[in-house]
Amino acid sequence: MLKRFATLREPGIRGHEAAAGWLFLMPVIVILGLFLVLPITMAAWVSFSDWNGNGSPLGANAHFVGLDNYRHLLTEPGLDQNNFGTALRNNVYYVLLVVPIQTAVALFLAVLVNRRVKLVGFFRTAFYFPSVTSSVAITVLFLFLFSPTGAINKLLSYFGATGPSWLYDPRGLFHVILGQFGVDQSSGSLANGFFLGVSYWDWLSGPSIAMCVFIVMAVFTTSGTFMLLFLAALQSIDDSVNEAAALDGASEWRKFRHITVPMIRPTIFTILTLGLIGTWQIFDQIYVGTKGSPSNTTLTPAFLSFNASFNGNNWGVGAAIAFILFAIIVFFTILTRLATRNPDRVPRRRRFGPTQALGDPNASRVASASPGGAP
Amino acid sequence: MNAHRKPRIARSRAALVLAMVAALALTAGTALGSRQSGTATTTLTALIGSSGPAETFAVNNAAKAFTKQTGIEVNVVVASDLGQQLAQGFASGNPPDIFYLGNDQVATYAKAGSLAPLDSLKNVKAFYPSLRAAYTYKGRLYAAPKDFSTLALVINTASWQRAKLTAKDYPKTWAQLASVAKKLTRSGQVGLCTGAEFHRLGVFMIQSGGWLVSKNGQTATVNSKANVAAFNFVKSMIKAGSFKLTNQLGVGWGGEGFGKQMCAMTIEGNWISGAMTHDYPTVKYRVVELPTGPAGKGTLQYDGGWGMAAASKNKTEAMSLITYMTSPKVQMGNAKAFGVMPSVKANAKAWSKLYPQFAAFLAGAEYSRSIPTVPDIATVLGDFNQQLQGLPQSNNPKTILDRINSELQSILNK
């Protein structure tokens, strides 16, 4: 079969190479199939089943229940729905704060270490260092730093401030701020409306003080990694582009805004996407640090999925949470792609390259990168 | 010549690789084979969640003694995350034969069919009836109690004396508890502290005459008047500043706050003795029974037990191992090694002699309560604990109780 197919396309000495190709691909196909496709398919099956953790999920103990687990999570009021809503709320604030801050910090650091200054190698290493340290080690370090009697509160006390008890403080940041203005639950009508088992008022809580510690930690650890990506992108910008802009009298800020940022747009997309995926999947910090406490304010969908499965023996619900999380991540990735797509500001460039495909953002980017530098 | 040599080398290399693979497969095959058929001895696996080296050592010693007596090998595995490793075992269809099992998980696993009933255990009558009840689900016993603990009031003797209190002042009522806590509170040390969780604060519910479920176990009674009164009392002490929860102090558990002398009294179980000896040897303390509430005495009881997997291939041997592990002799050895209270009545006298200073813990066994055996109870109580962390900030403890009540009712209805 293979042979005949090959001879049809290319009769000759390369006829047998298709078989060889498949042979060489086999290890990867087997590994991916065994460790990726198979487990994901199994998890998908579990999310549609009532498997109770006893024996194989493909055995007699699991029955198909359709969308019951999803319905249970999304529409039935109760503890599971409330936990899921709370976990989503926590994670939304975590993502909303971590992704923009870490991207901005990473870009800022990259611009700093992209200059030709003394000790730049040292700073590059220093900024990257938190990224190569294990997240568990950093979490433990942060637990000590942010303990109520730890270094951070000691530092604050030198300025006459009393720090909160950080990881033990369940108060939402926005609630605390609103409380300063005398707004609390009793004065609002938000307490009576519910979405996913969580009242509107609680949706607006903001990240808890405890979650803020994890937000700081995420920015601290991942900014270094993303700095490296930004640095690579910055160094691929030809000096002549900036020189030309400088000759035209552009200020540093304008050069950054109108040359650097547009030219590293693909990297920004990559970093936003990686950031989104990473932040929606936060697990090990929570597992090591707080296990969801205080008052469930550091509970995240990934940890809830683990907890529902392994400790609650509620495997179907746990798997369903994982797949909803997957859908959320895919949704936001597509959204980021749309938002960071190169806008087609073609008309002025058309005269440079009439051959470029107008609809293809990559083509225009390549075209704008090379001839743009030579005035 | 050259043209001939190359393929030969390649061929011999291929042969070598083949030979190596074959050798590997053979050794692997024999290694796997010998486990099943090699010798006549059976090997049992026991998964334990150890409190520390002392417990691991004691369990290993008991297992060795069992092997000497019966010829059955025992492989003791110390879990880093007992729940997770147990779940993995059940899912794989090849779980450990016997394992530690808390009574909050017993109903969940029994309902899933992962546990083998142990009603026919030889020494089943030796255990305290209340401990057996704590492991009974739908009329069948699913774990052999191996030890238990109760909560009592632990008092820092130095602070007690500094506040000019004497042995006569050990609190007998809630009012007295509030009053001594107030006297003990000074700068840097609060009178009483304990964990912000049901597993500690629940004692006030019992003392107040309340409980999680009704007598027949069918109705949730978390938001009963008695329970509301209990949490209002706790709340009043917190407001007075003489009682702080561990999350207000920023410590992991009551024993840590007590050991670090951040509080003068705490409500803890007998495991605190190990922590005090190892981590805070200079802090002298005394254990007394918890005060009596409006409805009488009350404390919570924590049970440790040995469960057996339904999928175990060596049930008879596993049963005899469980019987051995829960025998008075082994339990007394464990009590000496790491201070737990034996689950068999036969050891009560010997234990009181060994630990006269902890008599209050054993006395608690008379009126203590275990968590009801309902599937998913651990999840609901987990949420109760999470909600109670907000108790200091909460204006109305009843909202927490209402919430937990409806959650508990929904799992009772299942």
Features of this protein?
heterodimer; A: 375 residues; mainly alpha; two-stranded antiparallel ribbon; globular; disordered C terminus; B: 414 residues; alpha/beta; eleven-stranded mixed β-sheet; two-stranded antiparallel sheet
Tell me about this structure.
- The complex is a heterodimer of chains A (375) and B (414).
- Chain A is an all-alpha fold.
- Chain A has 17 helices and 2 strands.
- A two-stranded antiparallel sheet of chain A has the order 1-2.
- The longest helix of chain A has 35 residues, at 79-113.
- Chain B is α/β, with parallel strands linked by helices and 414 residues long.
- Helices cover 49% and strands 16% of the residues of chain B.
- Chain B has helices spanning 2-38, 53-70, 82-92, 106-112, 129-134, 157-162, 174-184, 198-207, 225-240, 246-249, 254-259, 272-279, 315-325, 328-338, 348-354, 359-364, 377-388, 397-413; strands spanning 43-48, 73-78, 98-102, 136-137, 140-141, 143-156, 190-194, 243-245, 263-269, 285-288, 299-308, 341-342, 368-369.
- In chain B, strands 1, 2, 3, 6, 7, 8, 9, 10, 11, 12 and 13 form an 11-stranded mixed β-sheet that branches. A two-stranded antiparallel sheet of chain B has the order 4-5.
- Chain B starts with a helix and ends with a helix.
- Chain A binds chain B through residues 52-57, 59, 61, 78-79, 83, 147-149, 165-166, 168, 170-171, 292-296, 308-314, and chain B through 83-84, 87, 90-91, 93, 108-109, 111-114, 247-250, 310-311, 376, 378-380, 382-383, 385-387, 389-390, 393, 407, 410.
